[in-house]
Amino acid sequence: xxxxxxxxxxxxxxxxxxxxxxxxxxxxxxxxxxxxxxxxxxxxxxxxxxxxxxxxxxxxxxxxxxxxxxxxxxxxxxxxxxxxxxxxxxxxxxxxxxxxxxxxxxxxxxxxxxxxxxxxxxxxxxxxxxxxxxxxxxxxxxxxxxxxxxxxxxxxxxxxxxxxxxxxxxxxxxxxxxxxxxxxxxxxxxxxxxxxxxxxxxxxxxxxxxxxxxxxxxxxxxxxxxxxxxxxxxxxxxxxxxxxxxxxxxxxxxxxxxxxxxxxxxxxxxxxxxxxxxxxxxxxxxxxxxxxxxxxxxxxxxxxxxxxx
Amino acid sequence: xxxxxxxxxxxxxxxxxxxxxxxxxxxxxxxxxxxxxxxxxxxxxxxxxxxxxxxxxxxxxxxxxxxxxxxxxxxxxxxxxxxxxxxxxxxxxxxxxxxxxxxxxxxxxxxxxxxxxxxxxxxxxxxxxxxxxxxxxxxxxxxxxxxxxxxxxxxxxxxxxxxxxxxxxxxxxxxxxxxxxxxxxxxxxxxxxxxxxxxxxxxxxxxxxxxxxxxxxxxxxxxxxxxxxxxxxxxxxxxxxxxxxxxxxxxxxxxxxxxxxxxxxxxxxxxxxxxxxxxxxxxxxxxxxxxxxxxxxxxxxxxxxxxxxxxxxxxxxxxxxxxxxxxxxxxxxxxxxxxxxxxxxxxxxxxxxxxxxxxxxxxxxxxxxxxxxxxxxxxxxxxxxxxxxxxxxxxxxxxxxxxxxxxxxxxxxxxxxxxxxxxxxxxxxxxxxxxxxxxxxxxxxxxxxxxxxxxxxxxxxxxxxxxxxxxxxxxxxxxxxxxxxxxxxxxxxx
Amino acid sequence: xxxxxxxxxxxxxxxxxxxxxxxxxxxxxxxxxxxxxxxxxxxxxxxxxxxxxxxxxxxxxxxxxxxxxxxxxxxxxxxxxxxxxxxxxxxxxxxxxxxxxxxxxxxxxxxxxxxxxxxxxxxxxxxxxxxxxxxxxxxxxxxxxxxxxxxxxxxxxxxxxxxxxxxxxxxxxxxxxxxxxxxxxxxxxxxxxxxxxxxxxxxxxxxxxxxxxxxxxxxxxxxxxxxxxxxxxxxxxxxxxxxxxxxxxxxxxxxxxxxxxxxxxxxxxxxxxxxxxxxxxxxxxxxxxxxxxxxxxxxxxxxxxxxxxxxxxxxxxxxxxxxxxxxxxxxxxxxxxxxxxxxxxxxxxxxxxxxxxxxxxxxxxxxxxxxxxxxxxxxxxxxxxxxxxxxxxxxxxxxxxxxxxxxxxxxxxxxxxxxxxxxxxxxxxxxxxxxxxxxxxxxxxxxxxxxxxxxxxxxxxxxxxxxxxxxxxxxxxxxxxxxx
Lengths: 309, 494, 484
Hints:
heterotrimer, B: D-Maltodextrin-Binding Protein, domain 2, C: 2 domains
């Protein structure tokens, strides 16, 4: 009896070991495939090849560079693009400002709307939810031009005397609609038991107090998720920002607009792929590390949104 | 939390302040324009902030800022500071027409945008007689016809040329000898040796396709192609004559079809950009302009970069079969549009700046500044007789050999080209550049091209197919849309 | 059931009429019964509040009234296009004059018109009027409430008390106002503007009537043109609309399913019992979510490009003599290959997302289900099919739908990878163009705003139908009312 069980156990454990081995192999192969394109960008950023005296900055067919160096980074930080000296650091700073302010405003708006939709009862609640869902389904490109001129009406873009105001305009444009994307946060708030709110109400708490002292402390994961989403947004958008800020105000561009223009704009020198790659690395590092750091909250937000719908 | 709210409140205050500030100035803008309609334009305009903004190509922004600063320093009574901004040359016209009020006071575009910008109220005509005299005295006749546009039936000067642009050939000296670069056949031979394609273009728009469509017979520089020839620059006036159905054009299309089908012949630019083709030895040569110089240099290295006129080719037996106007062995040279970039004044610029703007344009387009811009940023001057200056610079050792041949070849090609015609908003190469090239490319690729009226040009290989395609292009030039149907008999032009 | 649904709308309509009539009679009564202050409030905002000593509130109402009236009367203008009553007149787009100027002074005599701004500002003004009446009603109500308070012997609320009420009973007003204002101005108005463009001739392709600025209303012509093929993009719309629509659906289905299944399988692999380095593996896959798409997708595009390393490798190995156009970037490349590649590469971006999401769900599957399965001698595959999938699908149906809708308008993936290619000479819409990327090309590149708006509306109709149908059936929606 012992012998047969032992045999079964050992064959089972061998099976398990084999299947684990297979799993490892698959995962490692997949992992490599997943990383290749990103490795390509990183390698391109450090590529430092010359053809005679001329630096090669275009896409090359050798995956691994023949020579490494920091020239691309050095050039990127010191070069003049679109008439802006030290353009790249400026773009970085612009994006940081836009992202931080947008993050604060958007997160606040989303939380306040989500709380109202989840925990308060009022007349226009249902229509508000329906409208916000419907509006979100229209493709946004057409309205860009309208938003530009609305912002221009209040002097927040297309203003030659104060070109910098267009950054306020961009922040406004990014965060204005944020409140309509409350669904995920609402799903999160829905899970907080109503009894908690009711009992606080019986204790004489105002709705504001309830929001501030009961809901917000519980909502840390969703706050972080929303903040992460609205902070990373401006780093990724390369179309909207250019229209709102204007092609002429290149000193107020965000970094993604700038990088995209390096690759696709018309330049006297189109030899900029490696500099583009260096820029990508610089942009990706903080965002990726932020993501990794706050991964747990991200997962929580994604799951909340997906399962609750 | 309180701090957060306080911060938000402060933000809102700033926003509303900003809003109030500007809407106020907007009102005053309106008031001033309405209140004093015909008063002295020099009167102090509250919107005149004492700054003249200039947009130039990205590559020469620094140079023009320097020149302008110098100008202001030399003319203490000029009264304006000048801010120069480098713009993306490809998209600047679109940026201007999107919101002309936000565009610069003076901007520069390729001359084929003049009609569009003038007719959409983005451009102000030049009226300063001294400036007009300078433009008429300095520029070649071909430019003079295309920088005028009409307003209310009168023709006005809208653009002041300062850079000339034409196509020529870059080749890789590593793979091509100077002799081979003179003919398309020679390039093919070199390409066969290198196991790649012979030649590419930098894009498939109307400007780049001019190398084939505007090819001219070497013996007498002739072509039967006409683009709005003799048109009257008056809105609603005659569109002139357009023709591209000559036997020579048909033969050239056939020749290019064969040349493109050849494994060592012509190819369209790669999606990675023509630089990738050129750098990776996917082609041995490329037809480009002076603005591609830096990229071309970076692609193959300055030592390997050859510059030449667009090569010549001989018509083959197959190309001339069934045609009476040409015969096998006729030699043609690739053509080009010989364009110019122009200074223009924004119609929305404050009227009190008008005089100074014209003064500034007059200076910036003067021969001295054009010459300086050639020496510093490789802008090939537009004025008549620039070739002599370029040659002199080379002889005096002020420019390198490739910099010299760059300018010299471009000036040389100008003899083989015409400027892209444009007359008014309704009549310009806009049509040419939107639909014509697509048909032409379809013909070279031997693919179908769709037209309105449910007609699809399904075959582009037979003589009849090519005739139809060229008829289509000609019709598009004249009308902007494809014909409802093809005529029963297509005209033949020997 | 059928008869009920037929009669239902009718009764609804009657009640609506009834309600409107009642509303008006109430409003009349409100005026008649009100104190002098309330009566005056009908004409001067805040008068009732001043009457009752609520000065700050009254002042706020008055400021809003004066502000909106000033805008209506003085008609401030942007780019020579006015707001206010003039913009309402302009909304007809009829008395549009071409700009005329005196070329010698360069002075504009008649402002150049800009029809797109006329439409936009007209709608803004209409919204303003709407807000005017909303505030009008609020201000009367506020005065009436003070009347009532007096009647029952209470003092009208002070400003401080009003503020306090905003933090409690009317907390939702405080919380929703910023979003309502911002979303109206920057989301809803622009969307209405976009829809309106579909009924105009706004098309910069038609240079004959100064297309960039001057256009007029043309009813549903643009929608008819989709079927007749009229207009400057007529052939394109007629010949390419159905293929693009079809591919949009195929893409959305495949992109959703591949990422979904792939994600679940990956999650299963990573969460396998006894596997070490779970966190490391997860991190590796998450990176593609974290890296901005314009970076990661452009990297893939260059990697697979004509002269990119991948083609170079294939050619070095001698597997191909010519570079392969994987992404259809050149005219003449294979459309099928490009379509296959975008779906494949989309997995690279999308699979980790599902993996993250389903990881938690997988761990929640009761272990005894598997135990029971194992006892029954079910194979791993069978257990996956019979236990894992049903469970996960059940929990994540809303996600499946939202990601399907999201994929219909997946702009970045297509725009950055293939740019819609391979293109067909003479058409805007290439082989892999979705409705949204086509819309982008038609409007932003070509300036055919009316055609773009039509495509946009079609896109909206498709996504809205799917969302509404599924959303109405979903548990989330149906339980919504019982939940509170």
